[in-house]
Each structure stands twice: as structure tokens, then as C-alpha cells.
Amino acid sequence: MKIVVDMMGGDHGLEATLPALKKFHESHPDVELIAVGDKAKIGEVPFEVVDAPEALRMDAGIMDVFRDKTSSMAVSIITAKDRGADAVISAGSTAAFLSLATLRLKKMEGILRPALISDFPTLEGGKTTILDIGASNENTPEELVQFAIMGSLYHKAVHKKESPRVYLLSNGTEEDKGKDVVKQAHKMLKESKEVNFLGNIEARETLSGDADVIVADGYSGNVLLKSTEGTAKAMSKLIKKAFKKNLLTKIGYLFARSGFKQMSKTMDYKSTGGAILLGINSIAVKAHGNSEPYGFYSALEVAYKGAKGGLLGEIRKGLKDGSAA
Questions:
Q1: How far apart are CA 218 and CA 131, in angstroms?
Q2: What is the pLDDT of residue 244?
Q3: 98 and 286 in contact (C-beta within 8 Å)?
Q4: Cα distance between residue 258 and residue 93, in whole Å
Q5: Can you tell me the distance from the alpha carbon of 72 to that of 56, in angstroms, rounded to the nearest whole number?
Q6: Among 13-17, 125-129, 230-234, 273-277, which range has the highest average pLDDT?
Q7: Smallest Cα–Cα separation from 5: which of 296, 290, 280, 292?
Q8: Strands, DSSP E only, in the chain?
Q9: Mean pLDDT of 57-80
Q10: What is the arithmetic mean of pLDDT over 295-308?
């Protein structure tokens, strides 16, 4: 397995990527790692380094992105294509990464539009797969149907679950609820035999564990992603504040801390690490922009599991023969 890593992207750059990559190398000797970044600052490491000291600006315009061939992000994607890598990872600008990955690595045959896909923790301790979480602002009913197929194939390949339960994100469970695009997609999915479609689901139930795959347009999915992360952070702060209230609450925490630590671990979005741009000819993982070593290591694990599970091959096969259900 071959994975290319943009070392310079994100808020923390090498402070996050280098420790994560060293740890990943130790735990995954079966992976050939290609680090792309400032060779002088990376220093001596037990994996290949491609020199590209410049990081793409987070506020780079679309034309700057398309012209770019020298930043660590651009060189990473070009290297991934030229070297036939199984995956490429960056914590840099989301818009730039999605644009460059789609431009250089190309869409799979038959894909209408790629989608960002990520796993969310559930109350049952499992994972629910949600897409699109921000690759597009608007989508057609046909694209949502294809997202349902890709999401189902992803869940089968990565989580090894046959016939994943697929839902559409909406503002009500009734068939006539939601935007026109959701209602049209609902009708098409209900008639489809390619996925195990079970209807609409509301945002408040996304982490219940009832759904294996939740399909949304990119705008709604991105709002869901950020509101969920924000709620998890707020709940953590409120719980800590409550236990620090007085001596009795502090004593109470001593008895309950193992449970709260487990809850915190379950709801920590950094444990997922990043999202895969699904529908292009490589596993392109967009790590969180504010990734620290733990979060970036988790993003590397996302790429590893996708490649090891034969994700791209499963999607190509499933789209061809309609075996997503």
C-alpha cells in the first residue's frame, strides 16, 4: 500500500503531521509512505520525502489553485497520480484540496459528482456514514441517489456490514417532507433495488444508531457536521463546569469519571480524523484543518482502512452491477 501525505497543510503543519506520520510508520510497516514537504525541516526519517517547502495559502483563489504546481498540496496530488498511490492526505484548504484532487485524479467513470463522506459515532458505539458533508452546495436528486449507492458500498467495504440501512436527511420522517430535491430523491430511492432504503431521518436522530448511511446535499450535510461537532464541544465544557461547581460535585466526578471519559472519547470528532472525497480515482482524505497529531493520525487510519478494504474497487464494481444493497 502506498500513501502520499501533504506535510505542510493545516493550522499546525509539521507540528501535527510529522509526529503522526512517524507513529503511523511504526504501527503500519506494510505501508509505503511518501511525505511531501520541507525536506530540511522534516529531517532524517525512515520514509521517503519529496521536497515541497511551500504551503498553499488557506485563502488562495480558485485560479491560484488551478495554476498551482509547487505547493505541498499540489505536489502531493501530482505525486499520488504519477506514483499510482492508493491514497493522498492533506489538512490544507478544503476547497483547494477538493478542486485539485478532482482535477488531477479525475472522477470515476459514471460518477455524477464526488462527495465528501465521513463516519460519525453513534450512541450504540458503532458508526454511521454521512455524505455529502461539503463537497458541493447544491445537488440534484440523481446525485443524491448515487450518494446513497456510494455510501452503502463504502459502509460495506469499510465496516463489513451487509445491506446497510440507508436514510435521507430531512426535516421530517414523512415522504412529503423536505426540499423538492429530497422529495424527488426519496421517490427514486423508494423505487430502487440498489440500496436498502428505509426513508427519511431527522437531524436529531443521526447519532441514534438506527442508520448506517445518511444521505444529504452538501450544504445540509456540512451544517450537520459542524453543528454536531459544536454540540459535542459544548456538552463537554458544560459537564466539566458542572463537576467543578463545589466539593460534592468534584467528589461525584471521581466516581463517574471513567464513564465520562468513555463518552468524551466516543464523541471526539478527532477520532475520525477526516473525510474521504468519494468518487475519484484515488482515496483522497481531507484531514481537519486544525488537526493535531492525534487527529492527523486518525486521518491516516481512515485512508488505510479505505485502501485495505478495497473501497475503490468495491465502488467501481457496485456501480457497474448494482450490488450496493
A1: 7
A2: 82
A3: yes
A4: 37
A5: 7
A6: 13-17
A7: 296
A8: 2-6, 32-37, 48-51, 87-90, 115-121, 127-131, 165-169, 196-201, 213-215, 274-278, 283-287
A9: 87
A10: 93
The whole-model pTM stands at 0.86
Cβ of 45: how many Cβ atoms within 10 Å? 14
8 Å CB contact between 75 and 53: no
Q: Which three cell numbers stand for residue 282?
A: 484515488
Give φ, ψ of 213 to 5 degrees. -135, 130
Single-letter amino acid, residue 138: E
Lowest mean pLDDT among 53-57, 77-81, 98-102: 53-57
Cell of 313: 474497487
Q: How far is 284 from 289, CA to CA, in rounded Å?
A: 15
What is the distance between the alpha carbons of residues 73 and 64, in angstroms, rounded to a whole number? 13
Say if residues 90 and 97 touch (Cβ distance below 8 Å).
yes
Residue that is written with C-alpha cell 515541497 in the block: 52
What is the three-class DSSP state of 147?
Answer: helix
DSSP state letters, 99-137: HHHHHHH-BPTT-SS-EEEEEEE-TTSSEEEEE-SSS-S
Where in 178-224 does DSSP place strands (E)? 196-201, 213-215
Q: Does residue 250 sit in helix, strand or coil?
A: helix
pLDDT digits (tens, 9 = 90+) for 190-248: 999 889 999 999 999 998 999 999 999 999 999 998 888 787 778 778 877 887 888 77
Three-class SS of residue 251? helix
**Which phi and psi angles does 66 have, rounded to 5°?**
-70, -30
Q: How many CB atoms neighbour CB 58 within 10 A?
A: 14
